[in-house]
Structure formats: C-alpha cells, structure tokens
Amino acid sequence: MKKKSLIVLVLLILVAVMAAYYFNGITDLLDRTRQFFYPSFILETEIVGEGSIQPEPGQHEYDEGDTLLVIAEPDEGWRFSHWEGDVSGEEPQLEITMDEDKVVRAVFEQEEYSLTVEYDEEGGEVLVDPDLDFTIMAMK
Fold first, then answer.
1. How many CA atoms lie within 13 A of 13 on its CB side?
2. Is residue 33 a part of any domain in this protein?
3. What is the span of the domain harbouring residue 6?
4. How many separate helices (H) and strands (E) can be counted in the chain?
5. How far apart are CA 38 and CA 115, in angstroms?
6. Using CA atoms, how far apart are residues 79 and 72, in angstroms rounded to an integer?
7. Model-level pTM greater than 0.70?
8. Diameter of the chain measured on Cα atoms
C-alpha cells in the first residue's frame, strides 16, 4: 500500500512540474486556472480634453459581472460633453457591468461664453477683467 501511495505522489509531482513548465511557471498556471473558473475583463479608461475620470486613465481588471460607477469631472473652464468607446451617454456618471473588455472615453469640451455689449452714440467704456481671455468682434 505504501508503494502505491508513493507512486501516486511521484506521478502527481511529475504532472505538476510538467504543467508548471508548460504554463511558464506555477503562477501562470494558477492565473489560467483562475481565469477559467472566474473570468475577468479589462476596463480601459481614457480622457479627451481637460478633466479627470474615476477610475483613473489606464487599464483596470474587474471580475465578470462586477458593476462599477465611472465618473467624469471637468477641469475649470471645461465641461463634460459625452462618453465614447464601448459606452454612450451625456451624463457625467455612468454605471457599467463588466461582461467583456471595454474602453470608456470621457470627452470634455472647453466652455464658451457670449458677451453682448450695447452702446450709445455718445460713447462710454466697457470694463473687462484683465485675467480673462476674450475676443472682441465688431459687427455693424
């Protein structure tokens, strides 16, 4: 009986060593086994324009079925416009479920303002904050 147990143990060790060699190490074997039973997907987040996104730009791994909230926050002078990639929408908060690899891109646009100035024939002056960038166009 001891001889059979020893043979089984040696065979198991041999199979483990061969599997580790085939899968480039025991870590790779464990990763592949985990991926088979518990699939995970990559969420890649990107930004166009000036702002931030949570999760931060880059690649993030999530388990299959994970639901997460992606949030876009514009920098000063910018506004959130819309989502691109594997999602769509115009709200800065987006809930997604990880069922495949996804790319999520937050698009920010620079804010624009209009200024209307009326004057009379007698003249006058218009005061402008010197820290603001602006363009004046004369229309007749």
1. 6
2. yes
3. 1-38
4. 2, 7
5. 57
6. 10
7. no
8. 115
Contact present, 96 and 87 (Cβ < 8 Å) = yes
Rounded to an integer, what is the distance from CA 136 to the centroid of its chain?
39
Q: Are 71 and 54 in contact (CB under 8 A)?
A: yes
User: Which residue reads 């061969």 in tokens?
Assistant: 18
| Torsion on CA atoms 100, 83, 75, 47, rounded to nearest 10 | 50
* Nearest C-alpha neighbor of 76 from the set 93, 52, 42: 52
Amino acid occupying residue 60: H
**Cβ burial, residue 43 (10 Å; 0-12/13-18/19+):** buried
Whole-number Å distance between alpha carbons of 93 and 53: 10
Residues near 129 by beta carbon (within 8 Å), at least 6 away in sequence: none
118 belongs to a structural domain: no
Domain holding 80: CATH number? 2.60.40
pLDDT digits (tens, 9 = 90+) for 12-43: 887 777 666 666 666 776 666 766 677 889 99
